[in-house]
Specification:
405 residues; alpha/beta; Aspartate Aminotransferase, domain 1; 3-stranded mixed beta sheet; 13 strands; 42% helix; globular; Aminotransferase_I/II_large; EC 2.3.1.47; pyridoxal phosphate binding; pyridoxal phosphate; transferase
Length: 405
Amino acid sequence: MSDKTPRPQLAHLTAQLEDLRQRGTHFKLRVLDDEQAPVCTYDGKRVINLASNNYLGLCNHPKLREAAIAATKKYGVGSGAVRTIAGTMHIHMELEEKIAAFKGVEACVVFQSGFTANAGTVSSILGKEDFILSDELNHASIIDGARLSRAKIKVFRHKDIAHAEDLLKEIQHEPGRKLLITDGVFSMDGDIGPVDKLCDLADQYGAIMMVDDAHASGVLGRNGRGSVDHFHCTQRVDVQVGTLSKAIGALGGYVCGSRDLIDYLYHRARPFLFSTSHPPSVAATCIAAFDLLEIEPERIQRLWDNTNYFKQQLTAAGFDTGGRTTPASETPITPILIGDGRATMDFSRSLFQAGLMATGIAFPTVPEGKARIRTIMTSEHTREQIDQALEILITVARKMNILPA
């Protein structure tokens, strides 16, 4: 056997990759050559970027750059350990206090990612005798955390309050705690979770209320405080999860709630216990970002102005942006529904060649038959860039018979 002959132990992976190629949904990673911006360079090609989570343009904001450089000069490039051993720096505590004050809660703990924040929290606060009631379209990190907890999982139809209540009624006399959990904004369809109505159910049935606000942070609520603030439910949600990797422009996730919740997570959340803490530069950039949310609310207004214009123009052109066979988008996440996975990925590749970065999403990320181009608007796109993106979308869609010629 030569050095280049594949080992048979992983032949099943090769077969599955070949299946993806046959379906037309196999992809290669696009590589960014410069900074994350409304117009940037991927794989050497200049494109309008409608694929980034950089909602408010903070990835490359001068104040965040300055904060990162200053923290690196003062503290170095790494923290050297997990938080519970030797890796908790003053700047980590400052960030947690900043977020807690911003959210209007007692305390906060920062995780290495939004995924670990969700998975680590759900899996640590519940056990096998407990119940989790989860929206069917909740993020993968919630699903994984639920499985790791070994709790009994009940899934309610998307945003279906009556179905959620039926499930709560079924288990209300069962021993064990009940956790009711939803995304604040659903990442594939861009619709907003019914946080207020689910809080009513949690209050009525004594359930723990948890909201994953990853795509609502920096987008909804006062100065971007999220869907919990948007629905005036800060004091009714027991566990708020957010991200530092999207609108905040850096990296990480966080959990907000009571001081006892956060102290418990310090002791029991496995990603917190077994992962090295953030580099000081990342903590510093996040602190600067929360300051900007307070002093530059016009960024969020620009985001919504751009979003509303873009949605109107897509609808006028005849694109299916949700509301027919999928939930209607209510946020800067706007899907363009195609349906077939191969056609969707071909459309995405053709858009890229025409100068537009717009990601194709197919099974298993979304159900079969509901593949889509997911577009995300930012505050930093100019009207000229948006119009150019729309022109590319319409022209390519007509060529590919996605829209009538």
